[in-house]
Design goal:
Radius of gyration of chain A: 27 Å
Largest interface: A-B, 45 and 45 residues
Distance between the termini of chain A: 31 Å
Strand content of chain A: 15-25%
CATH architecture of the largest domain in chain A: 2-Layer Sandwich
Structural class of chain A: alpha+beta
Oligomer: homodimer
Number of domains of chain A: 4
Amino acid sequence: MIKEEEEINRICKEVIVSIRPDDKEREEVKTVTTLIIANLNNKASEMGINARAISVGSTARNTWVSGDADIDIFIMFPADMSEEDLKEKGLVLAKSVSERYEERYASHPYIHAYFYVAETEYEADLVPCFEVKNASMLKSAVDRTPFHNEYVVTRLSGLEDEVILLKQFMKCLGIYGSEQRRKGFSGYLCELLILEYASFVKLLINASRWQYGERIDLEGHGNYKGEDPLIVIDPVDPKRNVAASVSLYSFCKLIDAARDFLAKPDQKFFMPRAAESMIHAEILKLVKERGTEFVMVTFEAPDVVEDILFPQLRKAETSVRNLIERNDFRVYRSDVTSEGGKAILVFELLVWQLPKIKKHMGPPVTSEVHSEAFKNKHSQPFRIEDGRYVVEVQRKHTDVVSLLKHELKSCSLGKDVSESVEKGYEVLKTEEILVGLGYFFSGYFGG
Amino acid sequence: MIKEEEEINRICKEVIVSIRPDDKEREEVKTVTTLIIANLNNKASEMGINARAISVGSTARNTWVSGDADIDIFIMFPADMSEEDLKEKGLVLAKSVSERYEERYASHPYIHAYFYVAETEYEADLVPCFEVKNASMLKSAVDRTPFHNEYVVTRLSGLEDEVILLKQFMKCLGIYGSEQRRKGFSGYLCELLILEYASFVKLLINASRWQYGERIDLEGHGNYKGEDPLIVIDPVDPKRNVAASVSLYSFCKLIDAARDFLAKPDQKFFMPRAAESMIHAEILKLVKERGTEFVMVTFEAPDVVEDILFPQLRKAETSVRNLIERNDFRVYRSDVTSEGGKAILVFELLVWQLPKIKKHMGPPVTSEVHSEAFKNKHSQPFRIEDGRYVVEVQRKHTDVVSLLKHELKSCSLGKDVSESVEKGYEVLKTEEILVGLGYFFSGYFGG
């Protein structure tokens, strides 16, 4: 055990050197950040706008992994300003300091801008928010971020390397990032986990024993009522679970990897796997070997951000899966993806064709009233099975493709997906699998 | 309603004339019965055997349907005689009065003999039994019969026609007879039902409202604890359900037909349908239209009476059906039969082939001990689904025929069936359906 601990420490020490930003990178990030903040504050003065810019996020806390610096600048406006004013003035101000930028949208619109230091490109999000008195007085979701920043900055000093190790570990597992497509761990959540357990290794030791509904409450003030795999009470907001977006999959993946790393520590846990793509012929060959059938529903991806799109695709996946199984076919696995402007629901089937006949169970023979109604309704001959009337009816759809071509729209698909499906969709079988899904299938079959 | 009652009475009156034995038939049956009894008693005297013969059953009670006279003669021996003595002397005595006979076996051996009056053949069962003091002191199951006879004879006078109507009604429904192949209503049960409800029509009115577990207790002394669709306490044995052999199917069939007859009274309810046979090509054509697949297990019928064979075949049916469904295939309907020395289990399938791959669910990822064991056991790559480890394994049998060819013997089949299967069996598919099952399939598809 002592030997393994030594090995783990040795590996962590070697890894951190290669993934921690060096002095040059830190200096450059600091330079850019300081410059943007100064420009924003000067412009605000010039324009007579009552606002001040602050640095938040991983670059403010020195917890970014080398090469991944995402500079976050929040532009704080007085809490008594109107939302419209904030939006208008915030964007004008942000644009005024940016050479090249895109307007983006989360719960609020913000500016994603590009800056250059010594020929290195840095990306920064410039986000207008309200400066509220405390986190319980939020006017918008982003107003919480300055409080997160303050909480972490004052406590994390000296533990930055632990956070960087954890983020890299999660990245390599594919569970870093709280966006809806991934449903993994956010940067802030990584920092809180390190604050709770004091080191990367101690976090892993604890995570390897986590149970569903694991609860972490740094301030001991939580009153979050939801049921999630992992509950980490926000130190600045007792009603909020910072880990609400962590899926059961991401939760389990961390637990599993924690055990593996502790049992067989290895540098490879910190080395990103190059994304692989399968060629079309390979996919078809593999499906043939499996003996299953793929049925895919494709339609134009609605024009919304992924965080809006993916929950709807997953809802559609569940709803369509239920439709398929309600019609007596059997789904082996399913998934969703969005590639090249198309949204795709993927179903791998064990049973995709069925005989024409179908058993329609009637009421128990002993139920006189229902029996009479049943016999009046059905003209075909009935028989008695297990004490109930049974008639044989014709199955409406004897294969899954026909079922989905005719009844997809009866499913609960989510607003934007539903609108897109209304405009038209295709149902494809294995031999019609779209090209361009090489990465998707590599992930699907690779586990 | 009055009009319908009149119509029912008119039909019953017309029907009873055609199905009630005429004077000639009654006279002949009485002559044969008297003769056999006299011969038995004389022979007993001659042989120095302490025994006396009595007439029991429907011919003793004038409740047989014309043409169906089964003469039952019980030869009563003293209760203190040994079973071996009874068996030996009883059979010797019975054989001594019979010109042509077969030795048969129920719970006791007995003689089935043929007698002739005016060129008409009559069949009679000559059954040795013990003359016990009361029905609670039975030495064998047949000892109860004389008590049944006594109970009914003294009460049924004047209601014979009602019993005859009921028996004919049930015969036409295919639910008359308590043998295990049919699991319908025995003659004695029919008589008790008429004693309870006083007439055929009143029985139907009541039966149309029967509920599962319906309880009839003429003597109000029952302490039968079992759960059966219909419970009719034996007036001579409070622990016994006379209707124990009535299947849920027969119970429901009577209820359904009672409602139909009362709603639309018709002579056709008393007219036996000629048994139809389907020709082989018809069967195959119909199966093709249904789109299902038949898989049949056939083996030599073990050399036991049907009352022993059929419960075992039904047990085998259930056990094999479970095997099939446990392996992810889907059974639509199943049945058993025995024809021409072969016993046959019939399965009609909705899903009879499956892909090679199979999902093997492992433990929840959070269960540390089980997870370690699972990962040590399975070398193939795993993935995480719904919080559990999952590996893909190869399905051992991708079709039902292969499954049954290899794993039938693992099923719980019943002693005699199991022994026969051990000697060899065949698994046939639709295109190999045996000829000679025309009557079976006519019943199967006809409802």
